[in-house]
Amino acid sequence: MYQDEAGFGRISKMSFCWAPQGIRPSIPSHYMLEYLYCYGAVDAQTGDSFFLIVGGCNTEWTNEFLRQVSQAYPDDYMLLVMDNAIWHKSSILEIPNNVELAFIPPYTPEMNPIEQVWKGIRKRGFKNKAFQTLEAVIDKLQEVIQGLEKSVLKSTVSRQWTRLLFENI
Question: What is the CATH number of the domain that holds 53?
Answer without folding.
Answer: 3.30.420.10
